[in-house]
Amino acid sequence: MFRQILKVTFVLASILILTGVNVRAQVFRNSNFGASGSIANDTVSTAERNMNSGEKKDQRPSFTIKRYFKALAHKDSMNITQMWFGSLILPGTAQIYNNQAWKLPVIYGTMGGFIGGAVAFNNKYHSDGSKSAKNMRTLMAGGAILSYYMSVLDGVANYKSVKKPLPARTTIFASMVPGLGQILNGDYWRVPIYYGGFVISGYCWAFNQKQYIRYRNMYIEAVDGTYTGSLTTDDIQWYRNSYRRYRDYSVISTALIYILSVVDANVFANFNNFDISDDISASVHPAVISPSSASNPHAESGPALRSSLPHAGVATPQAVGITFNLVF
Q1: Average pLDDT of the segment spanning 96-119
Q2: What is the pLDDT of residue 158?
Q3: In whole angstroms, how far apart are CA 35 and each of 32, 56, 63, 123, 307?
Q4: Number of other CB atoms surrounding residue 261 within 10 Å
Q5: For 218, phi and psi rounded to 5 degrees?
Q6: Are 168 and 26 in contact (CB under 8 A)?
Q7: pTM for the full model?
Q8: Average pLDDT, the chain
Q9: In whole angstroms, what is the distance from residue 143 CA to residue 149 CA?
């Protein structure tokens, strides 16, 4: 049982790391590190400004381990995925970044207590073979894993962000606790559907695994000549291979349901603020349009721009026209 818990923990950690790669792509934020100055004697076109802006964005420094520890010292910033990865490796670092360092003694005290208990009961089990010591060892190991898991969830939950809801937070929650992402999105009715799928696929997984082990042992007995049943060796081999194949299908279906729940939470978190109303309208009304804004609606206006244009002292006439607004 203890080894099975370790295997499950390793599989969950691998899934979380792979999920985080996809999460990082959607929370990558472009930052402009350049400073904007006033317009000089020459007019800068919109295309040139966009090109210069793109060049500055491409020069964004990469996030390194040094920047990570600077962020922990609150001298830099990091997104939620970077913080999440760090807390998976170093528990408690998310609480430091969230200005909740007072939680560190609670986290490490709880984890240390469970780990110490697991070690003590493990030694007791190996010394006298007590079944109760074996069960307590399993419980203590499970408590240590649960306290670690909760510390990571707490760090993600307390990450401060202007954007609400934050799709990356929803995706991380859905990957760590299936159904939690749907709860954050307000799609409560989907949670029983996914857990119903987990229950069915899990039951099929356990049943087929049990039958596979049964016929595998029978096949070993048939090969050794100790089998006394009525089935032939070929029949036993066919049943063994069939249940093994069905077990593998059950594992694949469980993984697909899990992935679908994560993707579902991510998609609907991104669409949370998407306008899906039936308001489709159009309006036309007269307006006074200046030649500069008519030729380039994104152009800058004001005295600084007019002084930089040719014939700055000549007044440019305004035109009367119409504006057309379409809402859909």
Answers
A1: 95
A2: 94
A3: 8, 10, 21, 63, 22
A4: 24
A5: -65, -40
A6: yes
A7: 0.65
A8: 78
A9: 10
- Taking a C-beta distance cutoff of 8 angstroms, is the pair 194, 257 a contact? yes
The contacts of residue 142 (CB under 8 Å, 6+ apart) are 5
CB contact set of 288 (below 8 Å; sequence gap of 6+): 318, 319, 320, 321
Residue with tokens 């370790």: 6
CA distances from 85 to 12, 25, 92, 153 (A): 14, 14, 12, 12
**Which two structure tokens, joined as six digits, stand for 261?**
């729940």
CA distance 263 to 174: 9
Location of structure tokens 């859909």: 328
